[in-house]
Each structure stands twice: as structure tokens, then as C-alpha cells.
Amino acid sequence: MSAIEEIIQGIGAAVVKIDEGTATISAVEQQTDQALDQAVALGANAAVEGFTRLKSEVEHLLAQLATAGEAAKEVLATARAVADST
Hints:
Elements: H1 3-42, H2 45-85
Helix pairs in contact: 1-2
């Protein structure tokens, strides 16, 4: 396997891992939403505050993962272009 093929394979693996991480955190976001809804229904103000803060941080993490995924895909496209030109 050539160096560029190994690079492409490595970047591709990173893209897959980022996508898997995004899916996992999306599931966590849904669980957080459910826990927040339950805390609201029970009138548990401290829990509502905590889950609201957690929800915000999970949303921020999802945004960061989306940015990382886009960047990784751009790097992968660049690597493929390099492979095509060599």
C-alpha cells in the first residue's frame, strides 16, 4: 500500500469515528431531553437546572463534532485529490 493510500485510509477511519461519536452524542442528547422533561414534570428545580446546563453542553459538543466531521471530510477530499494527481 502506498503512503497516500495509507493516509486516505487513516483519514477515512477518522471520519467514521467522528460519525460514530456524533451518533452516540445524538442519542445522549435525546436521553438528556427525556430526563429534562421528566424533571420538569416532577417539579425538580435543581434537576431542571442541571439538565438544562447539560443539554446546552451536549448541543455544543454536537456542533463541535459536526465541524470536525466536515473538516475531516475536506481533508479526505484533499488527500484523494493528491492521490489522483500522483
